[in-house]
């Protein structure tokens, strides 16, 4: 979860997941996706896999292990494998997993796990549940980034240590995890400490500084100590180092006559990393990470700029983007999100995604969050832990690189092939359906569309499958809320395992992105072979 702060803001969130199913049906699609094979390293500002192939992390946060539950939230609501299936099918290739030291203590017990839908998790320790999630995520070609989110489940901290969790414990726990996953490249690294930030007021700050030289407060020096200790235990891991909020370690004081320094979100200020870089024993394992949030989370001054949103790229350049643009090191935007209830927030999110870029050379990111119970932002899924927030997904979708293999082994990445089930679907018992097709977004060389299909019959269609015709030259890129495949000029959207039945009177909206012209629009929608009005 995230905390709000005083005059300079920062945020800390848990994670949002996604609901939907993406089917890739060709080697060509697989070639543009995935998280590579083997362990990851850096080359300038680019992540590469063990073969030197460029990789981009486009993921999300799934939180809960940092709270009193000591394991992923939502395990009370649905089977855990279904959740991972949805995340992968929506196109998220990486999961950032927040945890606290409390979940790693001997005798730690996970709670709020439903004994019916997740019977295989009952009685397991938090670490054993994490092991199972990692193994299954790896089988889908996904990657896992571990995030030390809190020193205890009680809450976040400005510094990387508190009395209950001194620095030595922080480092030893990281080394334990590094050794535990030493032979599992699904786990790519350590996000050392979530949102180090200022405390007290400048010039008498007591929080995390960057480059101040105080061994007790200089986050850059602490990141070096922990990062090198982790690399001693597991030289294959990435070391992810977040920024601070105010580089002095103290919040601005509006009541004195001292000019205030530029401050950003908690964990979001890397403005001095160029001058005072993190020095690791393996420099090609360093990734910098920032957090970025919308106006509804905290009202930063730059949201009032008359030039909004065109002023935002300059702010991002100053705080963290320069590291990527100057080829210093890769940048991971580890948290960013909003409920999007404020129209300005949607503009902010669209601008941010454009700034990070498309394809494998774009900046890495993990959206906050999958969880609907993130108070500041909500989630990719709604309160039922299944239904996708289509507004959010539609903005993120063009930037996602789906997982297509690799992860848990060091061999060649496999290709995930989705097979259409339409041939085996039973007919609609009443033959009645209605459909609408909408072009949600279009750009040079591609478009995003949504198709809403309503069962107007008197009985459920189970399992359901919808087909539609696209113009010649249109090729499927990704899809969600169904397993979407292509054969010639026909797109087939087959019911996902988590929602196989379409009740009488019910509707389903399938989304997809495609390469090619958006006009003429897709047409000829059918539900289980019956033409829709």
From TrEMBL:
<dbReference type="InterPro" id="IPR008965">
    <property type="entry name" value="CBM2/CBM3_carb-bd_dom_sf"/>
</dbReference>
<dbReference type="InterPro" id="IPR001919">
    <property type="entry name" value="CBD2"/>
</dbReference>
<keyword id="KW-0624">Polysaccharide degradation</keyword>
<keyword id="KW-0119">Carbohydrate metabolism</keyword>
<protein>
    <recommendedName>
        <fullName>Endoglucanase</fullName>
        <ecNumber>3.2.1.4</ecNumber>
    </recommendedName>
</protein>
<feature type="domain" description="CBM2">
    <location>
        <begin position="426"/>
        <end position="533"/>
    </location>
</feature>
<keyword id="KW-0378">Hydrolase</keyword>
<keyword id="KW-0136">Cellulose degradation</keyword>
<feature type="compositionally biased region" description="Low complexity">
    <location>
        <begin position="410"/>
        <end position="425"/>
    </location>
</feature>
<comment type="similarity">
    <text>Belongs to the glycosyl hydrolase 5 (cellulase A) family.</text>
</comment>
<dbReference type="Pfam" id="PF00553">
    <property type="entry name" value="CBM_2"/>
</dbReference>
<dbReference type="InterPro" id="IPR017853">
    <property type="entry name" value="GH"/>
</dbReference>
<dbReference type="InterPro" id="IPR018087">
    <property type="entry name" value="Glyco_hydro_5_CS"/>
</dbReference>
<dbReference type="InterPro" id="IPR012291">
    <property type="entry name" value="CBM2_carb-bd_dom_sf"/>
</dbReference>
<feature type="region of interest" description="Disordered">
    <location>
        <begin position="410"/>
        <end position="431"/>
    </location>
</feature>
<dbReference type="Pfam" id="PF00150">
    <property type="entry name" value="Cellulase"/>
</dbReference>
<keyword id="KW-0326">Glycosidase</keyword>
<dbReference type="InterPro" id="IPR001547">
    <property type="entry name" value="Glyco_hydro_5"/>
</dbReference>
<feature type="signal peptide">
    <location>
        <begin position="1"/>
        <end position="30"/>
    </location>
</feature>
<keyword id="KW-0732">Signal</keyword>
């Amino acid at each position: 979860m995230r905390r709000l702060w005083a005059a300079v803001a920062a945020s800390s969130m848990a994670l949002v997941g996604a609901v939907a199913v993406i089917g890739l049906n060709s080697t060509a699609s697989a070639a543009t996706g995935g998280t590579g094979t083997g362990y990851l390293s850096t080359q300038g500002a680019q992540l590469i896999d063990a073969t030197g192939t460029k990789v981009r992390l486009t993921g999300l946060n799934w939180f809960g292990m940092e709270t009193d539950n000591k394991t992923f939230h939502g395990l009370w609501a649905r089977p855990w494998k279904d959740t991972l299936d949805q995340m992968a099918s929506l196109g998220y290739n990486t999961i950032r997993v927040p945890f606290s030291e409390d979940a790693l203590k001997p005798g730690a017990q996970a709670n709020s796990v439903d004994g019916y839908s997740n019977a295989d998790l009952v009685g397991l320790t938090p670490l054993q549940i994490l092991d199972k999630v990692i193994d299954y995520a790896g089988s889908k070609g996904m990657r896992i980034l571990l995030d030390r989110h809190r020193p205890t489940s009680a809450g976040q901290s400005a510094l990387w240590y508190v009395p209950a969790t001194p620095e030595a414990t922080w480092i030893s726990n990281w080394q334990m995890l590094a050794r535990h996953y030493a032979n599992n490249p699904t786990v790519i690294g350590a996000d050392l400490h979530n949102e180090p930030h200022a405390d007290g007021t400048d010039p008498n700050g007591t929080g995390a500084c960057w480059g101040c030289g105080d061994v007790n407060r200089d986050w850059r020096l602490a990141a070096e100590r922990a990062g090198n200790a982790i690399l001693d235990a597991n030289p294959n891991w990435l070391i992810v180092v977040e920024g601070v909020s105010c580089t002095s370690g103290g919040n601005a004081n509006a009541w004195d006559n001292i000019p205030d320094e530029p401050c950003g979100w908690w964990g979001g200020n890397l403005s001095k990393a160029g001058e005072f870089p993190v020095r690791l024993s393996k420099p090609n394992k360093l990734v910098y990470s920032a957090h970025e949030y919308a106006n509804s989370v905290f009202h930063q001054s730059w949201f009032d700029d008359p030039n909004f949103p065109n002023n935002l790229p300059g702010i991002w350049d100053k705080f963290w983007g320069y590291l990527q643009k100057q080829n210093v090191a890769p940048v991971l935007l580890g948290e960013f999100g909003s409920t999007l209830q404020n129209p300005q927030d949607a503009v902010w999110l669209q601008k941010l995604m454009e700034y990070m870029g498309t394809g494998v050379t774009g900046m890495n990111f993990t959206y906050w969050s999958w969880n609907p119970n993130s108070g500041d932002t909500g989630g990719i899924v709604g309160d039922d832990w299944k239904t996708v927030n289509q507004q959010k997904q539609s903005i993120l979708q063009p930037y996602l690189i789906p997982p297509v293999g690799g992860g848990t082994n060091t061999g060649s990445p496999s290709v995930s092939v989705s097979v259409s089930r339409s041939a085996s679907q039973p007919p609609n018992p009443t033959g009645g359906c209605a459909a609408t097709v909408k072009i949600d977004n279009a750009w040079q060389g591609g478009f995003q569309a949504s198709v809403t299909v309503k069962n107007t019959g008197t009985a459920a269609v189970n399992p359901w499958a919808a087909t539609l015709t696209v113009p010649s030259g249109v090729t499927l890129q990704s899809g969600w809320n169904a397993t979407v495949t292509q054969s010639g000029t026909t797109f087939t959207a087959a019911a996902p395992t988590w929602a196989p039945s379409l009740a009488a009177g019910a509707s389903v909206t399938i989304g997809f992105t495609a390469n090619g012209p958006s006009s003429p629009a897709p047409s000829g929608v059918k539900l289980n072979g019956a033409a829709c009005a």
